[in-house]
Specification:
The chain has 346 residues and is α+β, with helices and mostly antiparallel strands. Helix content is 24%, strand content 18%. The protein starts with 11 loop residues before the first strand and ends with a strand.
């Protein structure tokens, strides 16, 4: 299917002044509406004529959806709060620096001024084929064009592909998952609160959606509890360019207390934000290693199968030492492969 970049198809525009008004419009037109937040992703869809809604509901006039307020020691952030405000708010920076850093790495300053937190976590995938009008699984077809050896799929999923390998492009999503955030959703049936980890869904649940929002539902706020306030945070975004670009991999980590009760989750090699289940065990092993001989334990499978330090079974690897034996005590060891971002310990 050819993409026609021409005049945006005609639609009827609504600008409700309250959440209740917006919910009534969603309920009335739930079969053929489009919700407009910051408008950055929406304009791409409309200009390319890949979305032709009869009704567009603009949330920019609802003041209740903008702002950050204190709630039970944590923070509640309105879905229409600009990313610039999230990244710059002193309360977010002091208590939840992980989210502030993630929001500050989205795209460019101009886009962060216009883009919203709710829009960032609810935007559709950026898969080239899907956005180009190809009839893939997500678009109602029976094939994934990106899931082939010769496809353009550098920014697609490695894990949890399940027919569709497209990923959510949100930078703030892994940070919210790591912070045990909750997503507040309103509809004509009332309000429901969904953990951030359950807000993002994979193709095994619904191949046409990236999140749990159903027709007639609206994300109104994101609540960040006090659980991880003041913790030690680490966020890394790996991308081809250092501005504007979407992530190849995002990692969000939160560590609190003297024991390794850490949470390290949310990288985009998976279809949606994933918790790294082994981080607690890895933290304990690393702590014990540093406290004793500083000699990390190599996985038995690597030793028995002759794996290199990069994890490969190749007979030679110029990125690693020529031997797959364990390092000597005190030797600086490189974990991982340089091509996927090695980490050094020692």
């Amino acid at each position: 299917m050819a993409v026609i970049r021409d005049i945006i198809p005609a639609f009827e525009l609504f600008q409700p002044a309250s959440v209740d008004d917006a919910v009534r419009l969603l309920e009335k037109y739930q079969d053929d509406y489009w919700v407009l937040a910051g408008g950055l992703d929406s304009m791409d869809w409309l200009k390319d004529r890949l979305r032709r809604p009869r009704y567009v509901i603009d949330l920019s006039q609802i003041n209740d959806l903008v702002g950050i307020k204190e709630v039970d020691g944590g923070l509640e952030i309105g879905a229409m709060t600009p990313l610039t405000q999230v990244a710059g708010d002193q309360r977010v920076r002091d208590r939840f620096g992980l989210l502030a850093e993630a929001a500050g790495l989205v795209a460019t300053p101009q886009i962060r001024n216009q883009g919203t937190l709710g829009g960032n976590v609810s935007q559709d995938t950026r898969c080239w084929y899907y956005r180009g009008g190809w009839t893939c699984y997500r678009a109602g077809g029976n094939i994934c064009y990106a899931d082939t050896p010769t496809a353009i799929n550098r920014e697609h999923a490695i894990l949890d592909a399940d027919r569709c390998v497209a990923v959510s492009p949100s930078d703030t999503a892994p940070a919210l998952v790591a912070l045990d955030a909750q997503m507040v959703i309103r509809s004509a049936r009332g309000e429901r609160v969904v953990p951030a980890e359950e807000y993002f869904i994979g193709p095994g649940i619904d191949i046409t959606r990236m999140h749990v929002l159903k027709p007639g539902e609206l994300l109104t706020a994101v609540r960040v509890p006090a659980t991880w306030a003041g913790a030690q945070f680490y966020f890394e975004k790996v991308r081809d360019r250092q501005a504007w670009d979407f992530p190849l991999v995002n990692v969000a980590s939160a560590i609190k207390g003297s024991t390794p009760a850490s949470r390290q989750r949310g990288w985009w090699s998976g279809r949606s934000p994933r918790r790294r289940s082994g981080c607690r065990r890895s933290s304990r092993r690393l702590r014990a290693s540093r406290a004793t001989s500083r000699r990390p334990t190599w996985p038995a499978s690597w030793r028995s199968r002759g794996r290199r330090r990069c994890g490969t079974t190749a007979t030679s690897c110029r990125s690693c030492a020529t031997s797959s034996s364990e390092p000597s005590a005190g030797q600086k060891v490189e974990y991982g492969h340089p091509k996927v971002g090695a980490q050094s310990v020692g």
